[in-house]
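sry for the spam today, last one i promise. struct tokens for design, 448 residues
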């Protein structure tokens, strides 16, 4: 009887509430008018801007949010991001929602100027009109910052924007996201987030000889130019393909930055820090569902490494093993299993065995921290070893972890270590504050 009464009360309350909400909604529409977006739209726009990680590129170190001016190094010179606050002179204060959508959708500024694809419009083209309007409403609600845009410093001929016409013909396909009816709503939500707003392919796609990322290479992995970080393939299980991971491990990795299978570092740590940690459970799960099903495109036959054909000298193995025991085992354990999620496992960790050894070498040289997130509020760090280990030491210890405990990576050379030791650390100043890592795919198209 009590239960019955309670539920009757609940139903009554809900009915009253509903009656109350209806007139309120109508009021909102009357009072705010079409020009002033509802707070809920602004809130939604704020969330979507997080997913799109606009702040990472449009905020310079120590600068005002969204006021632009962040230098983006490319092989062709330096680009500077734009002020996207609602300042009428230097920002987008005079833009309409139409202008804004056109820019995201076509990669052309309000006056028709072709934008460099360092602005990830090749992915943002998939953003829906509704989402674009919400982001625009959010940006419009911010304080205008009266700060002029800085001229790009690109070498000739890359400074000539008309070159982009050829690049666009070859590599840019405008279009909206089309849900795949063969999959459910959750998968499609994940696909929309990963391919569109999340612009994951900006880094996780190999650029071809002409400097464009092509559809069949989507998510195939590649070295990020100027940054010397390798963004692994999300489609090959032997790199970071997630086919064998549980949804929980994928979700933990994306949102907390650490999971039982591994931790994020480098530019991916910045993506988690600035963007992914703020996503809802439902959106993170949708991304995980989609990522787990990414087809294993072009799964190549096992490399020489995987079939065990690589040789490592007995000297390197002995020296690497001794260094590992002395310097690494305290955190990663003698058996390479680590103590996840605090200390990631190195055994059976695809990110240690990838064809490119850039990431493990850089981790040992420079150390690092996973991002600080709500799910991992006090991340454990890894110390840098550049000062205490020679190039030979690092080559040996990285070779050792790449071939031990069932790992099948290729041993690394002293030269590979040296190249990375002397490379400038372009992302060091902003590794946590600002997302680095722009594939900058513009090269002079051979056909133009
Ligand atoms: C990876 C870096 C990066 C990200 C992420 C990024 N932008 Fe940009 N954006 C740029 C760069 C660089 C430019 C300038 C391009 C040029 O000069 O051709 C730009 C240009 C723009 C412009 C054009 C300004 C003008 O005056 O023409 C707008 C508007 C803009 N971005 C909004 C956004 C929004 C909204 C987001 C998030 C949904 C976003 N950007 C995410 C790098 C980025
Ligand atoms: C700024 C460049 C960049 C962007 C954008 C980016 N990534 Fe990454 N990602 C990397 C790099 C570099 C690594 C290798 C370092 C690591 O494993 O943490 C990586 C690693 C990963 C891994 C493997 C992690 C592991 O430890 O095995 C996954 C999964 C991943 N990214 C998913 C995504 C998803 C999903 C998105 C879009 C929401 C995305 N990435 C956007 C650069 C990027
Ligand atoms: C004090 C503890 C500690 C020590 C000592 C240590 N590490 Fe780490 N290591 C970590 C932590 C924490 C991470 C995760 C860092 C991140 O995500 O940025 C890590 C990450 C790594 C990674 C990347 C793992 C991944 O998921 O891809 C490699 C490779 C690595 N360590 C190798 C080594 C080697 C080799 C040594 C010895 C020369 C060593 N570590 C010593 C704590 C340690």
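last one done:
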């Amino acid at each position: 009887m009590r239960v019955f009464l309670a539920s009757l009360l609940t139903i009554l309350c809900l009915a009253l509430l509903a009656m109350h909400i209806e007139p309120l909604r109508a009021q909102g529409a009357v009072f705010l008018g079409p020009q002033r977006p509802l707070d809920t739209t602004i809130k939604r726009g704020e969330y979507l801007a997080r997913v799109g990680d606009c702040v990472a590129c449009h905020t310079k170190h120590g600068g005002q949010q969204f006021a632009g001016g962040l230098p983006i190094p490319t092989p062709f010179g330096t680009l500077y991001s734009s002020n996207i606050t609602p300042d009428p002179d230097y920002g987008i204060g005079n833009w309409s929602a139409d202008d804004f959508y056109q820019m995201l959708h076509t990669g052309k500024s309000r006056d028709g100027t072709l934008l460099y694809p360092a602005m990830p419009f090749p992915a943002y083209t998939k953003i829906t009109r509704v989402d674009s309007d919400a982001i625009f409403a959010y940006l419009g609600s911010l304080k205008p910052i009266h700060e002029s845009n800085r001229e790009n410093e690109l070498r000739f001929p890359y400074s000539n924007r008309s070159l982009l016409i050829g690049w666009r013909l070859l590599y840019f396909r405008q279009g909206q996201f089309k849900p795949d009816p063969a999959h459910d709503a959750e998968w499609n939500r994940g696909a929309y987030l990963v391919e569109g707003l999340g612009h994951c392919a900006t880094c996780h796609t190999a650029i071809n000889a002409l400097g464009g990322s092509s559809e069949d290479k989507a998510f195939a992995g590649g070295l990020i130019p100027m940054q010397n970080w390798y963004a692994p393939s999300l489609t090959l299980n032997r790199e970071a393909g997630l086919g064998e991971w549980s949804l929980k491990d994928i979700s933990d990795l994306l949102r907390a930055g650490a999971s039982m299978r591994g931790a994020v570092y480098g530019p991916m740590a910045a993506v988690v820090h600035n963007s992914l940690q703020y996503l809802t459970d439902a959106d993170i799960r949708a991304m995980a569902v989609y990522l787990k099903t990414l087809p294993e495109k072009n799964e190549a036959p096992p490399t020489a490494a995987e079939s065990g054909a690589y040789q490592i000298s007995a000297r390197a193995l002995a020296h690497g093993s001794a260094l590992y025991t002395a310097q690494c085992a305290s955190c990663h354990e003698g058996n390479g299993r680590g103590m996840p999620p605090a200390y990631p496992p190195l055994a059976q960790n695809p990110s240690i065995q990838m064809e490119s050894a850039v990431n493990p070498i850089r981790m040992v040289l420079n150390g690092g921290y996973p991002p600080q997130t709500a799910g991992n509020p006090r991340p454990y760090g890894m110390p840098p070893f550049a000062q205490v280990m020679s190039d030979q030491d690092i080559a040996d210890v990285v070779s050792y972890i790449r071939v031990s405990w069932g790992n099948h990576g290729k041993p690394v050379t002293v030269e590979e270590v040296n190249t990375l030791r002397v490379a400038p650390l372009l992302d060091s100043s902003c590794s946590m504050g600002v997302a680095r890592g722009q594939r900058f795919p513009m090269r002079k198209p051979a056909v133009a």
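The chain has three domains: 39-171, 185-293, 314-430. ok im logging off now
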